[in-house]
Amino acid sequence: MATPAKRIVVAINPNASFGRTRAVGPAVVAALRARGHDVVPQSAPDYEGLVRVVRSALAAPTDALVVVGGDGMVNLGVNLVAGTGVPLGIVPTGTGNDFATGLGIPAGDPDAAIAVLTAALEAGPRVIDAARVTGGDDPERWFAGVLSAGFDAAVNDRANRMRRPRGASRYVLALLAELATLKTRHYVLEIDGERIEVDSGLLSVANNTTIGGGMRIAPDALLDDGLLDVFIVAPVSRTRFIRLFPKVFSGTHAGLDVVEFRRGRRVTVSSPGVVGYADGERFGELPLTVEVVPGALSVLADRSI
Length: 305
Prior knowledge:
- This protein is α+β, with helices and mostly antiparallel strands.
- The chain is 28% helix and 32% strand.
- It contains 9 helices and 16 strands.
- The protein has helices spanning 24-34, 47-57, 71-81, 98-102, 110-123, 151-161, 169-178, 238-244, 247-250; strands spanning 7-12, 38-42, 64-69, 88-92, 126-135, 138-143, 146-148, 185-191, 194-200, 202-206, 228-233, 259-264, 266-270, 275-278, 281-285, 288-299.
- The strands form 3 sheets. A 6-stranded antiparallel β-sheet has the order 6-5-16-13-8-9, with helices on one face.
């Protein structure tokens, strides 16, 4: 039986109006309209402008928000619909696409991603957790994937500023460039009320498993378990870091003596002069407090994954 017509807002990455992904946004709109939905496409010259026009479009009753882009667009969508019950759909066209991959949405294959989207519109959304952040640049903000708060954040910042290459290799090159300044920092963590002090060069708070286009930093993280996975790497030399780094892609680093994982529902991360990034976006200087909100996000993805 056909799905009743829905009002669907489609937000298209401002950078997706040119290059190899320029046809994806119009293809998403066309596919949804072909199924009888009332589609409201939204675009703008820049990210801030897109936030404004999408927020305005969502002021009317809306059955779903679909974002076309990478993890930055996912973050835009999460911050507009988390806690509202409006489902979020994703057609990944970005550099990393980590959150879409974590949901089982095909990256690099827009037709397959659109098929997942339309199937989920018929079957109904999957309900997962989202992470609410206080402190930093905004009084309150959400993320879906991973908050980076160490060397990984510096890599994220450098990768965002690089024009070439496209794809996950950008993160690897940014990482190698940042190795020249690899240093240990002192952190004060508070996990569910327990204060912990650690020295670390790489520290993240994860809801999803991966960052940087497939680096499985938290291989056991689940999107719907009501917990955050805190990933801590003890101080290591550059030489050992380079030797161990390939293990991150397979997740086999989890058993190493320099790697520690902790879990909690509320995590505060403090370290002077460190800037946190989540879903590829700057969240601001530490301290940042991250609280998982179970069931805060509905996503248009396969519920069996």
